[in-house]
Amino acid sequence: MNQVWKFIAGRYLFAKHRINFITIISYISVTGITLGVAALIIVLGVFNGFGNLIKSFLINFEPHLKIEAVSENGVRNIEELRKEISGVTGGYYFSPFAEGKVLVFNGRMNRVVNLKGINPEDGSRTWGLKNSVFSGGYINPAAETPEVLIGILLADRLFARPGDTLTIVSPSGIEGVAAGVAPPKYRKFVVAGLFNANSNDYDGDYIFGPIDDVSSLLGYSTGFQGYEMRFDDVSEANEYKAKLESILSKDDYAVSTWYDLHKELFSVMQIERWVAYALLTMIILVATFNILASLTMSITEKKRDIGILRAMGLSDKAVMRIFMYQGLLTGLFGIAAGFILAGVVYYLQTTYKLYPLDPMRFRIDAIPMELSMSDFITVGIAAIILSVFSAVYPALRAAKIDPLKAIRWE
Known about the structure:
The protein has 17 helices and 10 strands. By secondary structure, it is of the alpha+beta class.
């Protein structure tokens, strides 16, 4: 009788019988688990899609590693720093940069923005600027008036277009300006082109220009603020960060990967993911309460059968297993159906854009989805555990039934 409990559990679950209240609750249990599992996987898939989309935008546009001078005056010893970086990074290219807050004017329109200085001749090897320019052209280092690239959102706010001349005012020497003893430090720049980085931060708040002109305007006495690097494989950034931190003084330089610079963003996204996971798991939890209810009522209905089985020698543990197995099977059916439903939604979304978006507003034409095997495993295990635990109380109750009383009662 080692495996008889499985046979009996299957008969109880799949036997042809009339539709009654217990059957309806069992169907509701399976439906609830199906919807809960599907909803959880779909939502996690959307989180995966948006997370990977943002990650790809950042990796394709930004440098992967940044070495920045702690001092406000910029890099102290340029040649020494260049030699130390070259000794660690080998053949990987690194480019100097300078950055600071400025006030930009286009006629009567003005904004406080970030002005970033790069080497126009090789900055495209560390930034994805060249591929992001969609109107106008890239910076011409030989231009008589220094040229800049501005983000698409910033261009709209300033009513600026390629060919317009911007006046950029530096905060350098602001004390003298405030005291009225010195004029503000400013410079004219021509808009070479507009870029679209698929990031509101860059598209709405950044201007890129030649490093010599930018560093001079910002008042960096040494010429620049640090170096930026890009790798063939972005995962190498952490390896080279550790190497550089081991040879560079933390008092002089800060080394950051692209992930470090956006750590708060990814932390918030991870928290949102776990909150969504917890809330949607409640759907599965509610469905498993229906399993508890249906099994409890099933035990009451089949009390005489249980008494006869106990009288024939079926052990307490075997009786428990019958109803634990029923709970497990109910959960497995719901999980399998939920997996299939999530897969169907994923196929429809990726193939037919079931939930479209306005690309002019959201930069993408549909909600992104990426299903992960780890999500299937995590959700499946959680649903199985809840299903089995929901059957514990009914199983214990069934095991405590006195066979003589059960037979006599019927």
